[in-house]
Amino acid sequence: MMKHKITALFMGLALLLGFSSCEDYFGDINVNPNAPIEVPPAVLLPSIEVNLADVTGGDISRFSSILVNHVRGVARQWSSIDNYSFIVPSNFDNAWRYNIYAGILQDARVMKAQAAETGGNYYVAIANVLMAYTWMMATDVWDAMPYREAFQGTDNLQPAFDSQEFIYSEIDNMLTEAISILSAGDPGSLVPGSDDLIYGGDAEAWLKAAHAIAARAALHRALIDANKYYGDVLTHVADGFTGMADDMRLQYTTNPTSAAPWYRFNRDRTGDIQMAEGDKVAALYTIMDNLGDPRLPVYSADFSDFDNHPYFRADRAYPLITYYEQKFMEAEALLMTGGDAAAIHDAFVAGIQASFDAMGMSDDAAAYIASVDPGEGNVTMNDIMTQKYIAMYTEPEVYNDWRRTGIPSLTPNSGSTIPYRFPYPTSELTLNPNNTPQVDGLDAITDPANKVWWDKN
Amino acid sequence: MKKLSLVLMLVLFGVGSMLAQRTVQGTVTAEDGEPLIGASVLVKGTTVGTTTDYDGKYSLTVPEGNNTLVFSYTGYETQEITLGASNVVDVVMSEGITLETAVVTALGVQREEKAVGFAVQEVDATAIERSGASKTLDALNGKAAGVNIIRASGAAGGGTRIVIRGQTSLTGNNQALIVIDGVRVDNSTFQSEGSHAGVANTNRLADLNPNDIESISVLKGAAATALYGVDGARGVVVITTKKGRGVDGKKFKVDLNSSVSFSQVTQITPTQTEYAQGWAGVYYPPETGVSTSWGPPVSELAWDGATDYEYDPNGRIVPADDPNAKTPVTPYDNIGTFFQTGVAFSNNVAVSGGSDVANFRFSYGNYSEEGVVPKNTFDRNTFKLASDLKLTDRLSMSASANFSKTNGRRIQQGSNTSGLMLGLLRTPVTFDNSGGFDDPANTEAAYRFPDGRQRNYRGGGGYDNPYWIINLAPRFDEVNRLFGHVKVDYKLHPWATLSANLGTDWYSDRREQQFEINSRTAPSGRIFEDNFFFRNTDVYLNLNGNGNLTDDITFGYLVGTNMYDRHLENLYTIGNGLSFQNFVHISNASDVQSSRALQKSREIGFYGSVDFGWKGLFYLTATARQDYVSSLIVPGKPFKLSDIGFFYPSISGSFVFSELLPSDDILSFGKLRLSYAQVGGGPPSPYSTSTPFVSATAGDGWADDIQFPFNGVTGFTLSGRLGNPNLEPERTTNQEVGVDLRFFKGRLGLDVSYYTMLSKNQILPVDLVGSTGYTSAVLNSGTLSSKGFEVVLSATPVRKRDFGWDVLVNFTQNETTVEKLAEGLEALQIGGFTGTGVFHIEGQPFGVIYGGAYLRDNAGTDADDGLTIPDGNILINDDPTSGEYGYQQPDPTLRVLGDPNPDFLVGITNTFRYKSLSLSFLIDWKQGGQMWNGTMWALTFFGRAQITAENRDKIVVFDGVLSDGSPNNIPVQVGNNYWTSSVGGFGSVDESFVQSTTWVRLREVTLSWDFNPKWFSGTFVQGGSLVVNGRNLYFWTPYLGVDPETSLQGTGNAQGFEYFNMPSTRSVSVGLNLSF
Predict the structure, then answer these.
(1) How far apart, in whole angstroms, are the C-alpha atoms of residue A326 and residue A167?
(2) Are A393 and A311 in contact (CB under 8 A)?
(3) For B730-789, how does the pLDDT look when each residue is reduced to its tens digit (9 = 90+)?
(4) Is-contact A374 A344, C-beta < 8 A?
(5) Whole-structure pTM value
(6) Is the pLDDT of residue B102 over 80?
(7) Which of B1, B322, B546, B768 is the most buried (most CB within 10 A)?
(8) Among A260, A250, A390, which residue's Cα sits nearest to residue A313?
(9) pLDDT at residue B81 above 90?
């Protein structure tokens, strides 16, 4: 009797709460209501592109720009980065883990796989271009990186590292595939549009960008095999950008949460980095000052006046690769392959002109070019690389150029050597210790033995 | 409908009619004839009772049908007297111990103290009420062994952390479960901003008025808590609230309580007052934006008297020998003049009454505080209604409902450019934050120029002027909360009582943070609204009974089920880029983003417990529980109940060995107890079994992130946290042995416990290398072990009519060790900054301080374990081309620098009573534990720390060796270059800033005076008391900064980190209690 009463009471309680079984009670309560399990490529692409522009114009740009003496760290942590003592592994976890591997590259892989399934040919191509760009930027500062064993989640907690040479061969493959898809002109069933924040889904523009990036990838390896790679540069340049309208840029806005990376840094870390403050004067400043470069007042305007800095404003169209860079690449490749003197000169002058154009200072270019132009037949590597160094203010590519060519000659901010590369991040050093080369402290990054593979300089 | 019926059930029960009754009176005395004051007289089986007056006299109206009175008094044996014909009952009580004392154990079950096989400690209402603390957890501080309570901030409304017997979870919640009247009540501390910035948020137990507490029982080991399921593994604080009680001769009793409290800041990081703003001995004025105080001595400077200078009414600062020099500069005392005396008012009224069939208690409490920081306020209004109803001999009900409304106006603190202490301590002494105004907190011109720019020492850049922060960067919040329960008991049979207890806890926590345009945290202006909606339902259905199987064997059992449903919703809207000043509102923002996060989980548990007793000598209790938790469900996988369930048992026993000993006057009672228990657990948060796509962000930690939608385009990214469909339940195993000894009829008591705890298979997000494609994964990994001693010593050296002295000593020693993290994972950061943080490291204590050290000559040799600082000499930089020539070298390997966990805690309470006066003081001694003094670290960079003045520009040769091993002989100047180098502030060496947080503290002093009821005879007043209380009046610590009790990361797991923490406070209060 009592047993029945109790059973009835337990059941009554369950009924009172409205459940007839355990399964009913639990239902789909552990299905995440806040985040979907599947999304279309159109929402992955914006995230990939913004992360790419943000890491390029963020950590990679700031550290590179200090190393090539475009700017100086003058306060707080950045004054220790300026003297290289704080170029430590913990400063690179963010870029390596969040932006690059678990961000851009992971999402691009997912997007590519989804697009391949649903027939989004251009998404496949764009994923390839963006991955190639990202891998190159990363391996250029870190050399060997996990590639073949990467992206396996908990199935491989300690991926092995692949050589930079191997990664470059994969970059070539990605770009080749992208170029072939984009050249074929068949977008497939799923077409990118306004979700493509860089080119608005314009396949032709992507094709040119793929060639420009391929030219850059070849140029980096010029010290490995000058003939082959300078030749490749010229091949790709021919199909690359035809004017500054083709530049690969991401347009930021004045909205604080979609503002450009340098703007956000200067806004939130006001006064940490300047071009010249007190006895800390960037080499770029001195070089431009000596040349009477009219761009100097623009570059060196107070970074703290971040709302008005012409270069570091919130709504900058952040450059990933540009027509002016391509022109300087062309000039270098022509010069180094014994090209036509007029063509060399044209490319050199066009590079400077394009840089002024990009800044909206076209009218100031002629007088300046006249003052720095050695004339047809006299253009030297020093001329080209110095003007490229000036034109590409705070772009990470300058660090690659400087390591390849040693131009311009720079004095270390402290010690006797400017670091040849970035240290590996703390996460890989500590959690993947058996595979990660022990490139951690200042000694390691200034050790010539730890130069990246292509840096035979 | 469910919700509605629940609310209806919470409505007050009516008060039953009074039945025929008689009045009994008498005197209660001790054996020596001295009257006992305040002895309890209760009609057995009812809630009708009274206490004796100053002459030991009582008078009580006894309802018809009841004829037994129970007399009890602390330290005396309880007596039951059956009423005869006489209405006068005088009682003589003898000293002794009351072994029949019941303690509240799991699920609200009362057990005889001697039958309990694990450690339980009770704290009574008087100790809570008279502590002078406005919040329950603060009131518990030092009053129970094994309990570590940390008040994270001196800010009004700041949170408090409670950990019982060390941590059981590497990254999850380690705070004790809070149970009020048998049901779970939420004690979360939600953060709205990064854990080291933002404001001091309240832990939600603060919504309970301490005046409503009848008693607190602290259940420490897993044996006591196995019946609370997963959450119980962390220890349980069981709070019983006050109930109505029949009062002799009157239908109602009214208690009034009113107090006022004054508070002041305690110590603040020492700063220098000798040197001006500037660099390398040169003065730089505010408009240059220079952040540091490496300028010339103030004594060499003068004001020029200019009246057109917006930064100082005294004029510009010029060298003292400048022709324009007018008056010598005197340093401004920005810090001393900033803080105010905080004032808090507390008013409480309670009405109670009842009969033998029904009772009620209604209370209202108001607490209103303005903190030591101007404009920091915290207000709380609480309403509580409790009622018991005896419907029939078999059926009874009880219910309570607690409604509270709390409001805060909070101040930005910690590591953020709008943090109060950050701006305040960095301000050079040559800059007057107040702008020369008498009441700068209420004078806009002190902090804002007419054109809207900020007036601060860095020309509008850098850090906010503190007066700007308190006026133009406020955080408002309001919490409306209802919690309560309904319990029904039905006696089916003498051996079977069926109880249902239904509890619910609902609240909304609505927050609004404003940053006016030109605030340093958000120069373009910002507002966010962060709204939390919480509700839980906690339902218990129990069947229990007990009795004697034979004359020698007692038996008890309990079987039951528990369903727990938790729902937390967060709605967040942030608006950036305000268009104009003086209207910080979402409609004025140019960039608005919203998010919504919902967390739902459900648990169902089935449990049982049996206990046996034999001859009052041996007791044995066994429990078992089977839990099913929703957080183990894998979406998309066919549902199988066994996939989400786990089982765990416990067994405990006690042996009252004193029963076997001949009775003597020395050892009156002795008990040995032993227990073994397991507790299981699911993932600490739901949705850990899958990997979704989440709204994207982009950034690098140096600046605020990009948030999607980006310029109107949505963006998603695959979550960096890899979910795990193969999770197994966690397991915590607890073993305990204890002995409880009472000597001299209970005048001296000693209770010692030793326990070990092993928590395995922990479910935690483990950091992954980026090259896995994820940043973390939820894994079963990690083992924590704890062991510790607890000693409770109680003594009553003197017990006379006019004079008494009681001593209570609580000793707590706990050592928690991180035995194992994940495979291949040796360190896991749980807090702090990049480069210096709080980490879990295998083989180390819980959450050690890990950061940069000086490089030793033994580094990298066999003497270096790669983890701790190796022995040896500090290596000095002897590269003449280096900017740090002659300085100590930083070690590129991060090291374990300190352990924030204390070696032991001691709380000593002495209570002296003289006639109606009582004086009690609690000394709190914490031995060991370290903290990273990030405030001092940063202030050395700025030339603001006191030490930067003590040796400024002196030539020293640092201890250490050169690279050839010879002793250092390089003289260096200790000035701005040194303190801004990689071994100075913001450098990579933290070793020299890790300091001991040992303290000895006068935590609590209470002087109370109970009024003689005779004074009120003939009036409606029955009695009263006056209480004067001091909290945290004095502490001694070697720590060179704010009170080391404060914590940057509030109530979280990462302790031992100080970075511009809000200082703690000391307070004095005066309160008056009256009853009618």
Answers:
(1) 22
(2) yes
(3) 888 999 999 999 998 888 999 999 999 999 988 888 889 999 999 999 989 889 999 999
(4) no
(5) 0.84
(6) no
(7) B768
(8) A260
(9) no
Instruction: Tell me whether residue A232 is in a domain.
Output: no
Would you say residue A104 lies in a domain? yes
Classify residue A281: in a domain, yes or no.
Answer: no
Among candidates B563, B707, B827 on the partner chain, residue whose Cβ is nearest the Cβ of A430 = B827
**Chain A residues inside the 8 Å CB shell of B715:** 43-44, 46-47, 50
Q: How far apart are CA A266 and CA A309, in angstroms?
A: 10
Reduced to 3 DSSP states, what percent helix, strand and coil does chain B have, rounded to the nearest 5? 10, 50, 40
Total residue length of chain B: 1076
Instruction: List the single residue in A29, A264, A425 with the smallest CB-CB distance to B703.
Output: A264
**Residue whose token pair is 């989804």:** A114
- Cα separation, A148 vs A128, in Å, equals 16
- Report how many Cβ contacts below 8 Å link chain A to chain B: 320
DSSP assignment of B498-528: EEEEEEEEEEEEEEEEEE-TT-SS-TT-EEE
**Distance (Å, rounded) from C-alpha A254 to C-alpha B711?**
9
Handedness of CA B408, B410, B415, B418 (dihedral sign): positive
3-state class (DSSP) for residue B354: strand
Least confident of A67-71, A271-275, B136-140, B441-445: B136-140
Letter string b/e over residues A388-427, b meaning 16 or more CB atoms within 10 A of that residue's CB = bbbbbbbbbbbbbbbbbbebbebeebbbeebbbbbbbbbb
Environment class of A357 (CB within 10 Å of its CB; exposed 0-12, middle 13-18, buried 19+): middle
List of long-range contacts for B15-20, beta carbons under 8 Å, 24+ apart: B15/B353, B15/B354, B15/B355, B15/B358, B15/B359, B15/B360, B16/B355, B16/B356, B16/B357, B16/B358, B16/B389, B16/B390, B17/B355, B18/B63, B18/B251, B18/B355, B19/B63, B19/B64, B19/B65, B19/B355, B19/B356, B19/B357, B20/B63, B20/B64
> Which tokens hold the place of B502?
């239904």
Domain boundary assignment for chain B: 2-95
In the sheet that holds B213-219, the strands lie side by side as B120-124, B213-219, B236-241, B177-180, B183-184
- Determine, for residues A431 and B500 on separate chains, whether the beta-carbon distance falls below 8 Å: no
- Interchain proximity A265–B702, CB inside 8 Å: yes
- For domain B2-95, the CATH superfamily is Carboxypeptidase-like, regulatory domain (2.60.40.1120)
CA distances from residue A197 to A206, B272, B715 in whole angstroms, order as listed: 12, 52, 11
Question: Whole domain around residue A181: which residue ranges?
Answer: 38-152+162-201+248-271+309-321
Count of structural domains within chain A: 1
A370 inside domain: no
Residue B543, min C-alpha distance to chain A (Å): 8
Residues of B whose CB is below 8 A from A77 = 986
**CATH, residue A128:** 1.25.40.390
Taking 50 as the threshold, does the pLDDT of residue B14 lie above it? no
Integer Cα distance of A101 and B537 in angstroms? 42
- The shortest CB-CB distance from B771 to any of A31, A101, A251 is to A101
Q: What angle do CA A9, A11, A13 make, to 5 degrees?
A: 70
**Closest to B1075 in 3D by CA, of B1023, B999, B1002:** B1023
Q: Which of A241, A234, A239, A233 is nearest to A217 (CA)?
A: A233
Classify each residue of A119-133 as buried b or exposed e, where b means 16 or more C-beta atoms within 10 Å of its C-beta: ebbbbbbbbbbbbbb
User: What residues are paired with B828 via a beta bridge?
Assistant: B840
